[in-house]
Structure formats: structure tokens, C-alpha cells
Amino acid sequence: MPNSLKYLLVFLGFVALAMIRFFEGELFYDPLLQFFKGNYHLSAAPEFNLWKLFFATIARYLLNTSISLFILVLLFSKQVLKFSLVIYGLLLLVLAPVFLYLISTMEIDLHFLLFYVRRFLIQPLLILLLIPAFYYQQHIKKAD
């Protein structure tokens, strides 16, 4: 694949991630969007459908993960796919039950924790760590 096409596809992948964020209100059920924009530290939680919110959040995580994996494979070849899948899978296995517990209890003392757990599930933050890590690894291999 020519480099120009590869970088165009990477750019389009990042545009897709940005569009998911931009249209999150229309694409996903998430009554916590407005809740976390306000003074959520002291506020009572809004009414919501627990399972609908949970599965919408997981669907968003999987969509962001798919696009992120596509970007990583384009940038670093298929060698990073297996490791990335393990990392994304472990993150989901750890955070999904924690998220479910936090949204099912919605204790005011845990809103701050819910904010960050939810943030890791709905935003493609892991790609921001993996790109420099894989780049560094690739750079070290070339130096040897």
C-alpha cells in the first residue's frame, strides 16, 4: 500500500473517531452526557435505563476500538494487532463490571470515579498511549 494512501486512511480513521465524539448525543443513549457537564459532584443522578446505558457504552467502546485497531494496523502492520486486542480486551473486562456497578449504585461519593471509568470506555484514549509506545518499539528495533 502506498504511504500516501496509508496516511489518508489513518487520517480518515481519526476523523471517524472525532465524528463519533461530535455526534455522540445522536448516536448513543447516554443521559450522563449532560449530567457530567454540570456540577455532578453534588447532584443526584438523572433517571436512565441501566441496561440500555450499559450496552450503549459498550457498543461505543467496541466501535472506537475497531477504528483504533484499524489505525494501529495501518501505522505499524499486523504485528501489533494481537497485542492491541489483548490490551483492549483486558481493559474492557476490567472496566465494564466496574462501570456497571457504578451506574447501578450511582452513589454521590463515586461520581468522580464513574466519570473517569466512563471516560475510558467512551473515548479512544488508549490509542494515544499505544501509538507512541509502538513507535518507540519500532524505532528501537530499527536501531539494533
Task: Provide a descriptive summary of the structure in words.
The chain has one domain (3-143). Helix content is 79%, strand content 0%. Helix 4 (50-76) runs antiparallel to helix 5 and helix 5 runs antiparallel to helix 6. The longest helix has 27 residues, at 50-76. By secondary structure, the protein is mainly alpha-helical. The two termini are 26 Å apart. The model has no long low-confidence stretch (mean pLDDT 92).
Quick synopsis:
Helices cover 79% and strands 0% of the residues.
Low-confidence stretches: none
Q: What count of domains describes the coordinates? A: 1
Order of helices and strands: HHHHHHH
Strand residue content: under 5%
- What is the β-strand count? 0
Main β-sheet description: none
What structural class do you assign from the helix and strand content? Answer: mainly alpha
Oligomer: single chain
Helix segment count?
A: 7
> pLDDT average, as an integer?
92
**Which term fits the overall shape?**
elongated
Question: How large, in whole angstroms, is the Cα Rg?
Answer: 17 Å
Helix content: over 70%
Straight-line distance between termini: 26 Å
